[in-house]
Task: structure prediction
Amino acid sequence: MNIAPRYLGRGSWLARRDPRVLILVVALFIFTVLQVWDGRVIFGLLLVAVAYYRSAGIPWRQMRRNWAVVFVFIGFIVVVNSIITGGDVQGLPAEQAHAFFQMPILGTPVSAESISLAVTLLMRYLAMATIGFPVAFAVAPSDFGVAFHRLGVPEKFAFGIDLTFRFLPSLANDLQTTVDAQRIRGLDWSAGTTGFLSRLRHSVPVVVPTVVHAIAGAEDTIDAMDLRGFGTSRRTWLRHLAYERTDLLVIAFFAALLVAATIGGFTGVTSHLWTPPFLIDLAGR
Result:
């Protein structure tokens, strides 16, 4: 487990913040977004998330695949949600919906309200993903453990989180090493495969040694920690964390958003789905 996560936001404004700020911002923002159903407010929160993400200075060319996966995954969730719910919108009877047409075969009605709900969910999930990426790429790899511990997480769990962030890139590196070793020996597991099941069968010679190596590496790490007396007494951390004024202002800003969203939800200002009038007009034609 000697492969450090990609520290793409090194030196950026957000990377200079206390790592606890980035973790707290994610928690505050998610609770904020989950309370809002008004698409106009969600769009404003999405702009806040984008500005926050840009302050991390993460290069786009190194994040294209990550964002492609996010867009595909979120789009899939939104489409499936629309199909499963049958076009129903919470709090609105089906006969009052402004329907455009029904999907062939499925019979799911597509209405102005269902389109508004899908767009709102899409923006909501994008905002949460955007606010979360800096935690993975703008926090120094050596700061994960101490950051979670200083937030109140027990030290064993905090150190486990630290190892988890290091384990994932290490596993990817082991997989690539195994694939290269197999190709040198004349085995290309991806060659001649046309379907998912075929690729799954051909991947066994690659997956098995990768998993075995990962288990062996985990056992070596456990032995090394036991030999150093990990868990026998209170652990000290070399990294000292202290909030600066800017850190407190950032936390206060997102805490204020949470308070505003909570008040808006209780008063009904932001707890109802907003449908653009032009969609209703189009459905009425």
User: Anything to note?
Assistant: Strands lie at 99-102, 109-111. The chain is about 60% helix and 0% strand. The chain has a mean pLDDT of 81. The CA atoms of residues 175 and 253 lie 42 Å apart.
